[in-house]
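BUG: 3D viewer hangs when loading the predicted structure for this chain

Environment: internal workstation, default settings.
Expected: structure renders.
Actual: progress bar stalls at 90%.

Input used:
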Amino acid sequence: MQYIMQRIDSAAGKYNKENLPGGARALVINEERVDAVQPLLSLMRDIGSAHGGKTPGQVRPVLLNLHPDILPSGISAVVRCSRCAA
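Structure tokens produced before the viewer hung:
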């Protein structure tokens, strides 16, 4: 799930079977991956609807920031991480 959410724009609802990317992204984002992420997209749509009509693309960063194995957005250096952890 972490890989899908971080690396594939389909987790933001950007791509679907009728709108697949071209170029280098087409090597990673194909119909199979778009199908695999549909249950997650449905859940993110439900969460977004319950919070003022947010889109999956708006819900995704919040879910990533809440995941214990993923650093919050904006933390880019070990020093900053240690300050946040203290």
